[in-house]
Amino acid sequence: MRAVEPAPNLLLVGGPKCGTTSLLLWLRKHNEVYHPWERVNSGAVESGFLLGGVVDYPFEMSKPRGTLFLPHEADMDYYKSERLIIDKSPQHLYSKRALETVRDLMPEAKVIITVRDPYDLMISLFHQQKKTVHFKTSFESLISKIDSRNWIASPEDPDTWGFLTYPRFSSYVKNWIDEIGEDRIRVVQLNSIALNPRMVLDEISDWLGIDPAGMPRDLSVKNPRGKLSNSAYRRFLRNPPNWAFSLAKIVIPTRGLRKVILDPIRSKGWKYVQSEKQEISDELTEKIRLNLIDDIEFMDNLEKYIPKSVII
Fold first, then answer.
1. Which residues pair with 85 in a beta bridge?
2. Are 186 and 207 in contact, with CB atoms under 8 Å apart?
3. What is the pTM for the complete model shown?
4. Region for residue 231 given its phi and psi (left: phi exceeds 0; alpha: psi -120 to 50; beta: otherwise)
5. At how many degrees (to 10) do helices 158-165 and 139-148 cross?
6. Are 14 and 63 in the same domain?
7. DSSP 8-state code for residue 245
């Protein structure tokens, strides 16, 4: 097994669809921050390194409970003794295993938690899933399925678990603060990231003890809404038929060489095109908000539920 030294000590643990992508892409441009997974495959790769092993909850619909999860290999070849090693893994917020590991084995690690209106998070999560190849459910069908589960999350149901868990982040946020301590955690609201990103980075820099002038000038928001292109060419690249895999093994006999040659070509299949915002009726909106009311109250009154000192 390969050892990674030093371990990440600046953790963007989530929640998902709350601005972690933008924060990662900005923070890793600072000369005192290194991102070991920057060169893996995309500009915003999530390692999930604290979830390694057989997962106990379906943090993605395509990865049900019981899936053996092997995190991406960290790339330390370009590490130049930067003070901070950053990781972005939004599923960590909801993992007891991740929390206990940071609490017991990573005493120097600092944690950033991002939050947003729970209703908006659910809608954004739906649009994110629509960008994948395995999700074909309409929003109305999804809510009907959630209704049939009485809005109760079950780790045995990967189709609804994320939608019923990720927007209900309040108890997880409080647990992380209670277990890790106020000094090691900052909670960032998505509205702050969108409306005043420079202020957010200045406060994070002050907390981390790094020069805010080292932050990038371009603070455009990343990870916009979209959907996968439905062209025949791009569908082929995303899901090649078996004969294409067989031919590739004959023409390019080694797996490593196939990855080097074919992965850049296949990546073109994941082109996103503009999509329309989901239209949701007032009645359905009211139902969703009613079922998320406790976390909406938490989000609307953060200072009532968590220490003011941790809020950015």
1. 34
2. yes
3. 0.86
4. beta
5. 90
6. yes
7. H
Average pLDDT of every residue of the chain: 89
Token readout for 204 is 């994070």
Rounded to 10°, the helix 139-148/282-291 angle is 40
Q: What is the pLDDT of residue 253?
A: 83
Domain encompassing residue 35: 10-223+279-310
For residue 215, give the CATH number of its domain: 3.40.50.300
**152 within a domain of the structure (yes/no):** yes
CA distances from 20 to 58, 93, 179, 276 (A): 20, 12, 22, 23
CB contact burial 281-306 (16+ within 10 A = b; e otherwise)? eeeeeebbeebbeebbebbeebeeeb
pLDDT range class, residue 176, cuts 50, 70, 90: very high
Task: Please state which of the ranges 53-57, 211-215, 254-258, 306-310 shows the lowest mean pLDDT.
Answer: 254-258
Residue 140 has pLDDT above 80, yes or no: yes
CB neighbour list of residue 106: distance below 8 Å, 6 or more residues apart: 7, 9
Looking at the structure, tell me whether residues 19 and 133 fall in a common domain.
Answer: yes
**Residue 168, class by beta-carbon neighbours within 10 Å (0-12 exposed, 13-18 middle, 19+ buried)?**
buried
Q: Flag whether pLDDT at 244 surpasses 90.
A: no
What tokens were used for 22?
């933008």
